[in-house]
Structures are given as C-alpha cells and as structure tokens.
Write a structure and sequence with these properties.
single chain; 87 residues; alpha+beta; two-stranded antiparallel sheet
C-alpha cells in the first residue's frame, strides 16, 4: 500500500466515523471508520519508513588478476545530504 492509498483510507475512515450518523443493523460504522483510520495510519508509517531507507551501492571488484573468480564486496552508504560541502 502506498502513501496515496494510506491517506485515502485515513480520509474515508474519518468521514465514516465523524460525518455519518447512520445506524446499520449489524454493523457499527464508527468501528469501521476507526479501523480504516488505523489501517491507513499504519500503512502511511510503513510506506514512509520503506521509502526513506538509505541507498546502498554494491561494487564487486576482483582482488587479484590471476584469479578473477575471487571478488571483494564493497558496500558504500550515502548520507541523505552532502556532509563535505561547505554551506
């Protein structure tokens, strides 16, 4: 579920909970609205944490020329902003 779907679920849940005053015989619409808002909030939090993961670059370099099958794995992590650049 993406950010847009999560916000949509939050909005629909809030409308069902706070705007409607309709009673259905076996279904409590207030509970349905609260469940939709909770699922939307959880989806929004999960979407934001997944999209904000740090980027990693994996470069495999051969360690020796004689045996090209042996590789060394180098992982470079980039900060979300440039630290070395002066303001």
């Amino acid at each position: 579920m993406g950010i847009g779907a999560s916000i949509f679920m939050l909005a629909v849940g809030a409308i069902i909970t706070f705007a409607f005053n309709i009673r259905v015989g076996f279904l409590d619409l207030d509970i349905v609205g609260w469940v939709l808002m909770g699922a939307g909030a959880l989806g929004l939090i999960m979407a934001l944490t997944i999209f904000n993961r740090r980027r990693t670059t994996v470069v495999e370099q051969p360690t020796t020329i004689a045996r090209p099958t042996t590789t060394e794995r180098v992982v470079e992590e980039r900060a979300p902003y440039d630290v070395d650049r002066p303001l």
